[in-house]
Amino acid sequence: MKKRTLAIVLALLSSTALADSCPSVLKFMKRKLNSQETVNLCEEYKGKTLLIVNTASYCGFTKQFKGLEAMYEKYRDKDFTVLGFPSHDFNQEAKDEKKTAELCELTYGVEFPMFEPTSVKGDNADPMYKMLERETGEEPSWNFNKYLVDKKGNILKHYGSRVRPTDPELVNDIERALAM
């Protein structure tokens, strides 16, 4: 009886410790784009290097989807992923999620995770984006802003829209984060 009680207590303590070890930036549930399926970001992405990007379908930077997908393909086996969050904050996103999903998948071949439309700036910003801003001091000023997060959940750096996925500084920063 004592062994069983001890085993239950240890199991409860370890599950609490695991929950507490989730980095703050991942303590969110997000709905997949054009789906009813939700994802626990901590369960899915804890321990991975992340590039979090606010996207838009009808923007001069929309072609960055190709570079982001290439980056995802190149590093995905090294515990890296891109997380895309369409945003209409700059009036360049389709109001129909199905159209956004079609553009991402059919036009740009996006396979990295895309999530529900998300407000990324101002008073209505999603709590995750408020955290990204608070940690970096940078709020997205346009579409395709990027935030690099290391495997431990530390928000390392913000990159503006003009920083392309092939930019040497961004690539070097990702490779350094992967090596940590």
Tell me what you see in this structure.
This protein is an alpha+beta fold and 180 residues long. The protein has a single domain, classed as 3-Layer(aba) Sandwich (Glutaredoxin), CATH 3.40.30. It is built from six helices and six strands; from the N terminus they run H-E-E-H-E-H-E-H-H-E-E-H. It has helices spanning 2-20, 41-45, 64-75, 97-107, 127-136, 168-179, and strands at 29-31, 38-40, 49-55, 80-86, 146-149, 155-159. A four-stranded mixed β-sheet has the order 4-3-5-6, with helices on both faces. 32% of the residues are buried. Residues 5-18 have low confidence and may be disordered.
Could you outline the blueprint of secondary structure elements for this entry?
Layout: H1 2-20, E1 29-31, E2 38-40, H2 41-45, E3 49-55, H3 64-75, E4 80-86, H4 97-107, H5 127-136, E5 146-149, E6 155-159, H6 168-179
Parallel strand pairs: 3-4
Antiparallel strand pairs: 1-2, 3-5, 5-6
Mean pLDDT, rounded to whole units? 89
Strand-residue proportion? 15-25%
Number of domains: 1
Which outline best applies?
Answer: globular
Strand order of the largest sheet: 4-3-5-6
Architecture per CATH nomenclature, i.e. the level-2 architecture = 3-Layer(aba) Sandwich
Q: Major β-sheet, in short?
A: 4 strands, mixed
The low-confidence parts are 5-18
Q: Which structural category fits the helices and strands?
A: alpha+beta
What is the CATH class name? Alpha Beta
In CATH terms, the superfamily is Glutaredoxin
Radius of gyration: 18 Å
CATH topology annotation? Glutaredoxin
Number of strand segments: 6
Q: How many individual helices?
A: 6
Roughly what percent helix? 25-40%
**Termini Cα gap:** 44 Å
